[in-house]
Amino acid sequence: MVLRRKLKRALAGGHPWIYRDAVTGPTPPPGTIVRVTDERGRFVARGLSEPGPIALRVLTTVDEPIDEALLARRIEDAVALRRRVLPPQTDVFRLVHGEGDRLPGVVCDVYGSCATLSLDGAAATAWRERWLAALRGPLSEYGVESVLVRTGRRGQRVVEPGWGAAPPPTVTVTEHGLRLVVDLHKGQKTGMFIDHRAGRHRIRGLADGARVLDLYAYIGGFSAGAGLGGAASVTTVDVAAGAIAMAEKTWQANALPPERQTAVAADVPEFLEQAQRRGERYDVIIADPPSFAPNAASVRAALRSYAKLHRACLRLLADNGWLLAATCSSHVDAATFDGVLAEAAAKERRPLQVVGRWGAPEDHPRIAAFPEGDYLAVVLARALS
Q1: Most distant CA atoms of the chain, gap in Å
Q2: C-alpha–C-alpha distance, residues 52 and 21, integer Å
Q3: DSSP assignment string, 68-126
Q4: 3-state secondary structure at position 136
Q5: pTM: predicted TM-score of the whole model, two decimal places
Q6: DSSP per residue, 256-286
Q7: 3-class DSSP state of 154
Q8: Closest-CA residue to 362 (of 81, 157, 99, 105)
Q9: CA separation for the pair 190, 297 (Å, rounded)
Q10: What whole-number distance in Å separates Cα of residue 216 and Cα of residue 198?
C-alpha cells in the first residue's frame, strides 16, 4: 500500500489505524501483513489488512517483521505496565488494551483463573490462534487456566473456548477486596465493566451511613461497594431482571446484610419519576448508563438523554449529596459531558461542586496520538445546599 496523505507524523506517534481513503493499492485478505510506503517508496508502517473503512491496523512503524517475537515484546510491555499499576487485592484487570498497548483489535481481560480474549475486526480475528499462543505464557503466570474468545459485535457476538476448560456460568473475582460475581459467557463487555474500578472504590469511601441509589447497576458493583463502605441502605436498579439477579449475588458474595439492599428490575426513567412522586431522597446517586451515543449521528439525542437523566437525579439528591455521573461513549468528550451536567444543575438550581474527574484506569492506557481511544468520562460532584 502507498500512503497518499501526510500522516507520517501521527503514525510515528503511534496512531494505530490507516483509513482506506488515505492509501492506494489493492485490499488483500483480512489479516494479511502489509507494508506501507510513502509516494517515494520509503517505509512508513507495517500492519494487518482490514476490510472496511480502516484499511490497516498498524503494528509497527519500524521496518521489522511482524512475527512471534514482536507479539511477545508487545505483550511483555503490557504485562510490565500492569505489574506497576494494579491495586492490591485485585484479580480482575485488563492485561492487553488493544490500540493502547499497540496491539490494535486485541483485548485480553483477566478474571481470576479465567481470561477473555476479545477480537475486534476481521484482521485480529484472522490471527486468533497466534494471539492465543502469544498470551498463553503470560496468562499462565497469573494463574489463568482457561480462556474464552469473543468475536463479532452486538447481536452477532460469538463466545467460544480458546484453551482450557470452559469457565462455569459465573465466576467470582476480587477488586480492592470487593467481590464481584461475573458471567463470562453472556455478560456485557467481556463480563463486567472493569474500567469503573476507580469509581466503585470512591463510592465505597463515601457511603458510610448514606442512602445510596445505583442506577443501571448491572452486576451491582457500585451497590456492593457502597454496602462495604457502610451504606445505611442501597437501592439497586436495572431494567434487566438477569442483571438484578447478578447484583443480588454480588451483594451476597460480600456477606452484606440482605435487609440493607433493595434490588429493583425497572426502567430507570420510570423509576426516577416514581421516586420523585414518593418524595424519595438519596445521599449518593450513581448514574452510569449504557452508551447513549453509539455513533456520531446519535450525539445530539444522547446529550438530551444525559441532561434529562442528570436533572432527574438532582431532584432526588439530598443537600450536600453526591452524584457520580458517567458516559462511556467516545463520541461524547469529557468537556461536552461536563457542560451537559452543568446545564442540568443550572436548570434545577442545584449548584454542583465538582470534586473529581477521571477516565479509564491505568490498565486501560491510550496512545497520546490516538485521542479516539478516550471513551470513558466520570464526574464526581456534590450538590450544595
Answers
A1: 72
A2: 10
A3: HHHHHHHHHHHHHHHHHHPPSS--EEEEEEGGGGT-TTEEEEEETTEEEEEE-SHHHHH
A4: helix
A5: 0.94
A6: --GGGEEEEE--HHHHHHHHHHHT--EEEEE
A7: coil
A8: 81
A9: 26
A10: 17
Across-strand partners of 60?
46
Res 63: pLDDT: 96
Amino acid at 219: I
pLDDT value at position 5?
75
Beta strands of the chain (E only): which ranges? 2-3, 17-19, 23-24, 33-37, 43-49, 54-60, 92-97, 106-111, 114-119, 146-151, 158-163, 171-175, 178-182, 211-215, 233-238, 261-265, 282-287, 317-327, 352-358, 377-383
**Lookup result for grid cell 484472522:** 126
Query: Which cell numbers hold the place of 385?
Result: 445546599
Q: What is the pLDDT of residues 67-79, one digit of tens each?
A: 999 999 999 999 9
pLDDT digits (tens, 9 = 90+) for 185-236: 999 899 999 999 999 999 999 999 999 999 999 999 999 999 999 999 999 9
On average, the pLDDT of the chain sits at 95
Question: What is the per-residue pLDDT for 183?
Answer: 96
Beta carbons of 95 and 86 less than 8 angstroms apart = no
Amino acid identity of residue 68, one-letter, is E
Q: Is the dihedral of CA 99, 103, 105, 110 positive or negative?
A: negative
User: What structural domains and CATH numbers belong to the chain?
Assistant: 2-60 (2.30.130.10), 68-169 (3.30.750.80), 193-383 (3.40.50.150)
Residue-level pLDDT at 6: 81
Rg value, the chain, Cα: 22
Q: In whole angstroms, how far apart are CA 184 and each of 140, 143, 275?
A: 18, 17, 33
Which residue shows C-alpha cell 476480587? 174
Residue 186 burial class via C-beta count within 10 angstroms: exposed 0-12, middle 13-18, buried 19 and up: exposed
Question: 330 falls in which pLDDT band (50, 70, 90)?
Answer: confident
Q: Which of 27, 63, 57, 28 shows the shortest CA–CA distance to 44?
A: 63
C-alpha span between 190 and 188 (Å, rounded): 6
Instruction: Give me the count of residues in the chain.
Output: 385
Single out the residue of 354, 313, 311, 309 nearest to residue 334, CA to CA. 354
